[in-house]
Design a protein that fits this description.
Helices cover 48% and strands 18% of the residues. The chain contains ten helices and eight strands. It has helices at residues 3-18, 24-30, 34-45, 96-110, 173-181, 192-203, 205-248, 254-261, 265-271, 273-276; strands at 52-62, 68-77, 82-88, 123-129, 140-143, 146-147, 153-154, 159-165. The strands form two sheets. The chain has a six-stranded mixed sheet. It has a two-stranded antiparallel sheet with strand order 6-7. A hairpin with a 5-residue loop joins strand 6 (146-147) and strand 7 (153-154). Helix 1 crosses helix 7 (205-248), helix 6 packs across helix 7 (205-248) and helix 8 (254-261) packs across helix 9 (265-271). The longest helix is centred in the last third of the chain and has 44 residues, at 205-248. It is globular, with a radius of gyration of 24 Å. The relative contact order is 0.10.
Amino acid sequence: MDKALSEKRKKQLEIIKQFRLIDDTFMSKVFEDKACAELLLRIILKKDDLTVLKTDSQIELKNIQGRSSRLDIYAVDSKGKHYDIEVQRDNDGALPRRARYNSSLMDANLLLKGQQVNELPETYVIFITEHDTLKGGKPLYTIDRKISELSDAIFDDGSHIIYVNGEIRDETELGRLMQDLFCVDPNKMHNKTLSDKVKQFKETEEGYGNMCELMENYVNEAVNEAVKETAKETAKETAKEIAVNLWNGGLLDMQQIANATKLSLDEVKELLADKTA
């Protein structure tokens, strides 16, 4: 191994050693393990008999318009309930309407052709946040729809949203789980299941290799997305220049300009506002 590669690997290993479970790159690898996901859900939902049958990490769900959302951890239990588990360091990533959107995406992708609506499985969107996003000082918030006119009776549509407040790291079972999510050293974790899995990625050659590959994939993906966004912006600016040139050249029908440049009519009107005033 040449010196440059050796230095690169050394830096990668240093980064991996500092990973915490609250970091989504690391979390996605650890909690794709069924035992770890099961432990997490049992503690949050207070269901010791919950059994996870399947987990996936970083999967994409799409709506009918083609817009997608990437879920950190997706799990299914033995009773057919589906879970989207999201770790959010930034409050903006855990906005209530983001939870609503993720819940709707799950529903849209769970009902297969030929199935009846009442066959929709029970779903949970769970946000684990670094800060107290809902600002109520509670360790956990459970959000279910209610019927206001019936003394706030539960509207049992089978969808649930839960926020877990990562700021509260007390000596309750949930608090100790939060301590583990923010812990760098696996030897100081409370839950052995999590500790053993974290050690696998931080202290074994195979684990190092998996994490280094994951980090490189993330970097490459981020670069590709940045290139795409730059290309979109460049194309947009070029279209605007063409629109102005068409107008200056005597084409005064804004709809025709919009059609020719692929800009929206509103964009063309805004662009040419000073020329039509």
